[in-house]
């Protein structure tokens, strides 16, 4: 019997047939973690305007390797802190999303989280300007008026 080692312990693989090459094993029904970064809340942040001026989001690296991340938004009056950084394996960071106090533009928008493998000795800007594999996740920002 084949086993796959995951974050949650070994999982028994039940292939339909066992070919000579284990990479050809049918793994259609096997669990697979798509996201390396987990956010809480998962997909939306709500602001009850004009009362709420800030919200927090927990961002966790659930992969086995350190990651570099960068967060941007399409709303000019939303500030994100921290908006970039590195995240070690199985660690988290609290991200604060704030609305400018003088803002009156309460238009629903999107926060884009991008991440890639951390490259030791390089700055965040150098990592994101280089060629590589970048993953992303969108978080909706909605305003209840």
From TrEMBL:
Localization (cell):
Cell projection, Pseudopodium; Cytoplasm, Cytoskeleton
Q: Is Cytoplasm among this UniProt entry's keywords?
A: yes
Q: Which positions fall inside the MSP domain?
A: 36-145
Q: Which GO terms describe its cellular component?
A: cytoskeleton; pseudopodium
PROSITE patterns per UniProt: MSP (PS50202)
Could you list this entry's UniProt keywords, alphabetically sorted. Cell projection, Cytoplasm, Cytoskeleton
Question: Known InterPro entries for this protein?
Answer: Ig-like_fold (IPR013783), MSP_dom (IPR000535), Nematode_MSP (IPR051155), PapD-like_sf (IPR008962)
One Pfam family of this protein, by short name?
Motile_Sperm
Question: Where would one find the signal peptide in this protein?
Answer: none
Superkingdom of the source?
Eukaryota
Q: What does this protein do?
A: Central component in molecular interactions underlying sperm crawling. Forms an extensive filament system that extends from sperm villipoda, along the leading edge of the pseudopod.
Which protein, by its recorded name, is this? Major sperm protein
What organism does the UniProt record list as the source?
Caenorhabditis nigoni
